[in-house]
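G., before I forget:
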Amino acid sequence: MRFGRITAFLAVSLAVAGSAPASAHPVDDGSLRAAARGSGVHIGTAVDMSALADDAPYRAAVAREFDTVTPENVMKWEVVEPQPGVYDWAAADRLVDFAHKNGQVVRGHTLVWHSQNPAWLTETAYTPAQLRTLLRKHILDEVGHFKGRVWAWDVANEIFNDDGTLRDTIWLRALGSDYIADAFRWAHQADPKALLFLNDYNNEGVNAKSDAYYALAKQLRAAGVPVHGYGMQGHLGVQYGFPGDVLENVRRFDRLGMKTAFTEVDVRMELPPDTAKVQAQAEGFGLLLRACLMAKNCVSYTVWGFTDKYSWVPGFFDGQGSATPLDENLQPKPAYDTLRETFLLVRR
Ligand code: XIL
């Protein structure tokens, strides 16, 4: 009798599951997105807008493999405001629409940075007061434009040097370190629901740079500044070895009550690749994902491009490449399988 009832219950549940829309009980189609489902961690990629427009297999892979996207370039200041006061949101809007259609959330990247700023901004001798007004307007206008459509913003990007001192930028020179708190306050004012992140590279393990972030985050939060997250880009290289204390680092930000994210993961190598390097690369990708899954408040893991066909690495690091989980033909490497397996095996 008892068993009979349970069997009947199971039969009913299965029937309901079977008749539910595909999205409610999706099958594992072998994608990263399917493996990540239910893990509490979004899986993302940076998106190259020309590839998204021109390359159908690329476009299909972005939709199939990921549930969050980051514009690789098109939300940067030089793109959105090519002339003073003249905005061009077209490319960024296209990505946000694509994400919406595919049930993906968007990581906005990035609001205050030393790089990829328009020449009109960096080459004019503005006074500190003018620069502050310009930065405020930039943040209010950009975050305001995407209000309700961007899940998380990299508000301040790469503001520290590796030794833990603040990076010398036009912002620090003109405004002192106050520009950091101001940037977060303005972003929050423009979209109170968006998650606001600090973001940098070489800050994945415990070191002088991540110590500086920890101290800053603590101080800002104590002062009531709306800083919600700590982003670790995760640009690794097999030839440098990997940081050993990533989980310890992520967990100390957890304890501050902050969210964390891996925001730009790639693992480059000296070309040409060989079996050992490709295996080491898989370990690098897996190490960061494991730390994310094992920490309570790690909300997303984003790769900086998923195919070597469009990766930024060969153009920026002489003689290096092969840094993403799929090769130039969009074929998976061991790193891809490691990411899937890690999502399936390491559950919170
Ligand atoms: C890179 C892009 O991938 C390139 O296409 C562009 O030419 C330069 O910027 N840290 C960041 C990213 O925060 O915005 C950078 O993206 C890579 C390093």
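The two ends are 36 Å apart (CA to CA). Residues 72-73, 157, 233, 264, 312 surround XIL (CB under 6 Å).

More on Monday.
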